[in-house]
Amino acid sequence: MRSTDAIVIGAGQAGLAISHELTRFGIAHVVLERGRIGERWRSERWDNLRLLTPNWMTRLPGKAYDGDDPDGFMPARAVTDILDGYAAGFAVPVETDCTVRALRPLGSGWMLETSRGTWRTRVVVVATGQCGMPSVPRFAPGVTPRVRQVTTSDYRNPAQLPAGGVLVVGAGASAVQIAEELALAGRAVTLAAGRHTRALRRYRGRDIWWWMDRAGMLEDAAEAQADLARARTQPSPQLVGGTPARDLDLGTLRALGVRILGRMRGAAGRLAQFAEDLPEQVAGAQKPLESMLARIDAVADRVGAPREAWPALLQGFEPGPARLDLVAEGIGSIVWATGHCRDNTWLRVPGLLDAAGEIRHRGGVTPAPGLYVLGLRFLRRRSSSFIGGVGADATAIAFEAAGHLAQSTFRDAA
Fold first, then answer.
1. Residues 341/326, Cβ–Cβ less than 8 Å
2. Average pLDDT value over all residues in the chain
3. pLDDT for 333-391, tens place per residue?
4. CATH topology for the 137-336 domain
5. Rounded Cα distance, 237 and 234, in Å
6. Would you identify the CATH topology of the domain 2-132+342-413?
């Protein structure tokens, strides 16, 4: 059994950020990664994906973006170059191709069973991120095998899918981008829109993220949210990265010929069922947009930015059919763009998980001494799950870990 003071699980942006901060605190540690550094960016992103955030927001502890296109949007494949270079810059102590199979208490410390042996440690940071495994509805297995099913982690490009129409389920950023790509490739696309958040790419002369940063919205504290659970499950805003900047919402898709239906609520064989709630979903997506623009206007007015009218509520979205025969409609595939969930069953820690199977924590500090989590949405602030926002949380968790190590010994854990 090998041992070290701290172990980080995951070598994406969150894992590398906390490794940098543990190194800065002088804490001996190792980072365990199931694949390669930034594995999800390498193997679970579609070909044409670009970041939703401008390049200037791509920053990690001790490293800011220094390229020549700060207002551009880098492709996902470029993120892996950023992470590789960052890791090399401080010689991150990473073990790749090492899957953690179980975490168990060991005295007042921890034991980790991995595909490459067993470790013991006094501190563990779970930095596997917000996007664990695709969240697919329970009724998905009931869809006829004549319709191929893929998730956003599987999807690469339109040519990958069988001939015929495509049903995209979801209305967040991934869903609307994939639906647009498929429509532009000549596919007949139907989109089932559930809860979503409408957004603007630019407003009052600036990118929307520039205004959110200037208005302090990225620093909105988790504890200040009226409904933190809802904030943590808020769909990603309907944005697309690229040049020239452009908006992408249900109205844009409808203009491309995409058929928009309400939330998909069931399936059995060839038949798919949909809620007749599309008008309500469209209206609900307008509310967070207007709340955001109101906060931005207060700042934009102070700096004298040119005034701009708010976009009107999208009109003409009526309840669609409650049922579709997928085969009769010529739909050959479904893309599930219904978010992600996390498989935390390997965490063999009594009382750690809540009823939904999520890790109990407050600002990344769990009820189990020496066990922390990092990289989740609204962990401490709105930007906690962003590449550019995880650094501040990493610093705070490293400080917590240093305090814990100062009060514990391996003798306690033996």
1. no
2. 96
3. 999 999 998 999 999 999 999 999 999 999 999 999 999 999 999 999 999 999 999 99
4. FAD/NAD(P)-binding domain (3.50.50)
5. 9
6. FAD/NAD(P)-binding domain (3.50.50)
